[in-house]
Amino acid sequence: MSFEQLGLTEKLLQAVADQGYQTPTPVQQQAIPVILAGRDVMAGAQTGTGKTAGFTLPLLQRLDAQTAQHHKRPPIRALILTPTRELALQVSESVRIYGKHLTLHAEAIYGGVSISEQIRKLRKGCDIVVATPGRLLDHVLQKNIDLSTVDILVLDEADRMLDMGFMPDLRRIISYLPKKRQNLMFSATYSNEIKSLAATVLTDAVEIAVARQNATADNIAERVYGISKEHKRELLSYLIGSNNWKQVLVFVRTKHGADRLEKQLIQDGIRAAALHGDKTQGARVKALDYFKTGKVAVLVATDIAARGLDIDQLPHVINYDLPQVAEDYIHRIGRTGRAGLNGEALSLVCPEEAWQLADIEKLLKREIPRVADTGYEPVSLKVAHAPKKLTPNKNTGKKDFRHHKKSGSKPAAKPANNRRGSSKTR
What are the φ/ψ torsions at residue 58 (nearest 5 degrees)? Predict the structure, then answer.
């Protein structure tokens, strides 16, 4: 199937051709005609499958078909919500690229930067707003933005927004929207929480699933290195240096851990930069730019980079620390193996993280291959006790540590470092 067969207009087809795309991905083939028909959509797709274009292209076409000659301030007709600044910037850039032959205008609204500049741009008017929930609410409460004219709502990476505790903000934002609108929900995972959210937002939605739920891409080679905690950094430096890897994304659990590992790698002679939530927006953009252009070989990041980080041909992802939430493993390694290319995902696992590895493998319904000879003394990755689980807090929507136990049973033993990696540290 070609993009021409999906019913896109000439201007959009030209924009797609300008990017060198010839064949739509499976999620694009299924989503674009349905969105063009005005239906609500619930789409579950792995990261790197082209879902941003899957909703951006038909959204632009629907808005362009309805465009009238606005005066000084066109009304906001589409709202795209994302969990992170990086993803907001990426999606707004996609809107700009695909809509370059149209007269539609979009603005990205996110925290970490001056709100006054955003107010100035919003006063000029725009057709599309791409926003993170918190900063959008700031503008709504200050009456800088009117959501009563929104025709299309898009929730991108909806599962990540729930994990980060945005459910109360989402409810408030939706209350400001007109009841009659088209709703599009895109998510890499398809949990019960997501289904519950979909039931409250979507109306007679078409469900689209282009991959197995909670599955990784087949073109990503995964391996686990069992190693003691004190030898992780040494092994990491050896793998990068001995293989002469030029572009490696390394995930850690905390902001402090990212800064510490960055300094250690630099001391080992490896060009590295850190990316986490305490960095200013300018520093985050600079770190990403240095990584994409090859000025640094290693980007050490917290889970803020697990979504919305789109790097062409990223060959290696390393879990220096395993994620606290099993689903985040899928998002992390989904940064590699994009656009059909092969990728490699390595996890350095110490005995204290054995329960997290067990949760990941339970989610995947398979065992991740182990590297038998790491060059260090073998360690056991067997789970000695039942771990605590992460469940959504009904009040905040965030996933908190709570015991899952049968009536009369004793609480499970408290896992080491059980507070690290919460949404507050990302």
Answer: -70, -30
Output the six-digit token pair for 339: 């656009």
CA dihedral sign of residues 228, 233, 234, 237:
positive
Q: Which residue has the tokens 């674009």?
A: 32
pTM as predicted: 0.69
> CA angle, corner 60, sides to 55 and 66, nearest 5?
130
Residue with tokens 């083939």: 29
Q: What span, in angstroms and rounded, lies between the C-alpha atoms of 12 and 54?
A: 12
Residue with tokens 């689980």: 389
d(CA 353, CA 281): 32
* Type of residue found at 247: Q
Going along the chain from its start, the domains and CATH numbers come out as 3-209 (3.40.50.300), 214-426 (3.40.50.300)
**Residues listed for the chain:** 426
Distance (Å, whole) CA 404 – CA 391 = 9
The phi and psi torsions of 231 (rounded to 5 degrees) equal -105, 0
How far apart CA 26 and CA 115 sit, in angstroms, is 38
Neighbouring CB atoms inside 10 A of 373's CB total 7
Using alpha carbons, select from 47, 125, 59, 144 the residue that is nearest to residue 87. 47
Q: 111-148, pLDDT tens digit by residue?
A: 888 899 999 999 989 999 999 999 999 999 999 999 99
Q: For the chain, state the CA radius of gyration.
A: 22
> Residues 6 or more apart from 215 whose CB is under 8 A from it?
46, 330, 364
**35-46 tens-digit pLDDT:** 999 999 999 876
First CA to last CA across the chain, in angstroms? Answer: 41
- Strand duo 206-209 + 78-81: pairing: unpaired
> In a 3-state reduction of DSSP, which class is residue 36?
helix
Task: Tell me the C-alpha distance between 79 and 315, whole Å.
Answer: 33
- What amino acid is encoded at 150 in this protein? V
Tell the residue number behind the tokens 């599962």, with chain if given: 159
65 CB-near residues (< 8 Å, 6+ apart): none
Closest CA to 386 of 363, 411, 364: 411
